[in-house]
Amino acid sequence: MSVLQAVFLGIVQGLTEFLPVSSSGHLAIFQNILHIETDSSVLFDVMLHVGTLLVVLVVYWKDILKLIVEFFRMIGDLFANLSMLFSSGRKQPHYRKIVRTNYRKFVVLIIVSTIPTGIMGYLGSKLIKDASGTLIVPGICLLITGVLLLLSDRRADCWKIPKDVSYGEGVLIGIAQGFATLPGLSRSGSTIAAATFCGLDRKFAVKYSFILSIPAIIGAAVLELSDISSEAVTGRLIGTYAAGMIAAAVVGYLAIRFMLRIVQNRKLKYFSYYCFAIGVLSIIGQFVFM
Question: Can you provide one Gene Ontology molecular function annotated for this UniProt record (predicted)?
């Protein structure tokens, strides 16, 4: 893989990770049609996702910091309650309420949503890898993404913020993210659509989707790192892949800012038309290029 190819795929990753058109689907399509060899493809995929992960951390750093602080405060309150339980004797202890703020509820929702995503991603890892080697699977999944975006755009504006979202709805959003590990099924599109179907405020739905991607990206990276062959990694490859990672981060930052406005203005339908077009072309390409 050349530096230009790495930068090109990085740009594709940065755009499609946050715009609801599926990064994995586009990478699979470009790699199959252009026959781009990524040499140590697992490492390259990990580095591209690290680049987009950095974007989420930069854009939502205030929210992420509050979530981390509240998580540890919840742990502290839990131990305090346990201490009161075992030392109260006959007195009725005044337990601290663990989930008492929006950010604490958001922490629990992220955990609840991550569990089904992790299970589905782990059990379906071989299927996902095989699906990326074809054009027809990304094509069909892009068509499904287009339908989800159209339905989401037509959903009436809702008002739910963390305190109003049930844990069952959190599980449903996590399942949507789990299915989105298939190439062509947009992660951001699927989770934002699922969130709006559950009645979440559109701005919060976008925030939920992108912050929810953090544990998913980290988990996927940890699993993939075990498959990296140290003999295949050279200094030249690291430099090439780093160029792709930087490109993904820069373009991803612009894309996530753009996406915030698109969802609030109910313009997802334009991305659905794009997904329909690319999906059909991908299916046709299966019989032309493969």
Answer: undecaprenyl-diphosphatase activity
